[in-house]
Amino acid sequence: MSKIIVDCAISLDGYFAGEQRGPGNPMGGVSGRLHAWMMKEKAFWRRIKMEGGTEDGKDGELINEVFDRTGAYIMGKRMFEEGEVSWAEDLYEADVYVLTHEKRDPWIQKGSTRFFFINDGIESALEKARASANGKDIRIQGGAITIQEFLNAGLIDELYLHITPIFIGKGIRLFEGMDPDKYEIQVLQVDSTELTTHMHYRLIRK
């Protein structure tokens, strides 16, 4: 059965994104700092269908692990709007369900990426994602508000958290407003590399 997973980076002071996010300023301008550990990995650039990276290291192995286990994605409208202008064709190679109030026909790309626009909430998106994931896992892609919705609904099974040793100071905290009694949390793995600390947790709803 599909698991519901989150995989994201945060700063040492808990921020997922900076201020004034938008299509012209993705993640509030902090993505390069938060994701420096990814940017150096050839695996990351292969996954986004571009040339780049200098290393094939542990960080790249984790990038591949998460991509390989994912069969469908769910994201919020803000993340979609920030990425739509720059994402490569068939970036996700899976169905992507976008939570939005906007009525819009599916965006069918060349290859296997299809974007569906969901107007009736997270449970509906999740039901549709399960049907198209073919037994693989469903990744709640972001942004922070969407992740928070799924967390507070008690729907997340596993969390990959990459803690980047920087301070951002302002913006959107990943766990803002989180119900502290929602889950029992188990540590599955901890692995530190030069630019980040990888934390892998199992979340068990109480």
From TrEMBL:
One of its GO terms (biological process) is riboflavin biosynthetic process. It comes from the Bacteria. The lineage of its organism: Bacteria, Pseudomonadati, Bacteroidota, Sphingobacteriia, Sphingobacteriales. InterPro entries: DHFR-like_dom_sf, RibDG_C, Riboflavin_Biosynth_HTPR. Residues 3-196 form the Bacterial bifunctional deaminase-reductase C-terminal domain. Pfam families: RibD_C. GO terms for molecular function: 5-amino-6-(5-phosphoribosylamino)uracil reductase activity. This is Dihydrofolate reductase.
